[in-house]
Amino acid sequence: MGPAGIRTAHTIEILRTERGLAQRQLADRVTALGRPMSNTMLSRIERAQRRCDVDDLVAIAEALLVSPLVLLEGPSTA
Question: Can you spell out the DSSP letters for 24-74?
Fold first, then answer.
């Protein structure tokens, strides 16, 4: 995974932590938005061990109440 993917993975973790959400809670929010996700899948995305496709990215951003661009550009835009 390239630097952009690693940055996105790190940003997801930062924003989730800032919001006081466990991986399970964020995964449940994403699933409730219609994009089934387990906490294992989310963990692998956060560790840049699993590709975060566009549908995942949009659903995670919505669950975190941010624009998908925030996840792509990094935490400084959050």
Answer: HHHHHHHHHTT----HHHHHHHHTT-S---HHHHHHHHHHHTS-HHHHHH-
Q: Is the dihedral of CA 14, 15, 20, 24 positive or negative?
A: negative
- Reported CATH class of domain 3-68: mainly alpha
Structure tokens at 75: 């935490």
Whether the pTM exceeds 0.85: the reply is yes
- Measuring CA to CA, how many Å separate 56 from each of 6, 38, 41, 71? 15, 12, 10, 11
> How many whole angstroms from its chain centre is CA 49?
13
Q: Is the pLDDT of residue 6 over 50?
A: yes
